[in-house]
Amino acid sequence: MKNTILRLMGLMGLISLLTSASHAADKPKIAVVISTLNNPWFVVLGDSAKARAIELGYDATVFDSQNDTAKEAAHFENLIARGYKAVLFNPTDANGSIANVKKAKAAGVPVFCIDREINSTDAATAQLLSDNYSGCVALGQHFVKVVGKEGKYAELLGLVGDNNTFNRSKGFHSVVDRFPGLKIVAQQSADFDRAKALEVFESILQKHPDLVAVFCGNDAMAMGAYQALVSAGKADKVKVFGFDGADDVVKLIAEKRIAATGMQFPKVMAAKSAEFAHDYLKGKRDFAQKIPVKVELVTPENVSQFGNYGKKPAAK
Hints:
- By secondary structure, the protein is an alpha/beta fold.
- The protein is built from ten helices and twelve strands.
- β1, α2 (about 40-55) and β2 form a beta-alpha-beta unit.
- The termini are far apart.
- The relative contact order is 0.13.
- Mean pLDDT is about 95; it is low at about 20-25.
């Protein structure tokens, strides 16, 4: 009798497992293709998109392109072949990623770009993009306020193939370049990468020991630059400015060790992209091609309002 009960329990467990697998297989699949998961900000972007897609009733999977257009292309081949119904996409390259989006479109799979854009207006169904230029105008204004109108500074640029790199730099310089006393003595790419920023900025510091500030095109590079300053014993002499709204930088702003960043709201963009995909699969077709998402300046004065890659709920 005992063996019979155990066999029945095992059979019931197997049936339950098969039923769950069947239900999962019945759900339409949404792919979340992220440029790199070697950056906590992009991990939040991917996980948030996946979570919202699951909430909306989809089977969602995150794919890591590792900032490699070849890996990204392989992901698109895979997801098209496996019948994914939509793609929430953080591109690796503004030009190099266009072919992948067009391939998905030709297969009837809508693509919604998040945070990074592609240089095409007829490939993606919609592109949700942080207002990088305006965000860095505000950052540039705060830079002048904090640093003053004179001094030598450096700039760490992101990936050369990403439009965000240059939109942020242009927004910043539209303000700072109006002050001839502020001299940029080094401008180098660190690929939005913390380890590379550490290496690049250590070299810059050796050549320019009298820097007063550094503007970094994202918070991963800001953390690398700050780490280089700590190692050089100059963390209290050179002001660091980032962009993203990453939690580690927000915490250092609260401690007045980093000067400022721009909060991009990755969770908002990710959730909205999943909702757009859901609306598309339910029949909606009239999407704006580019949808800007406001960036907010984070400073020691207002940092208490921010955290967990967004804005804290207002106290009741």
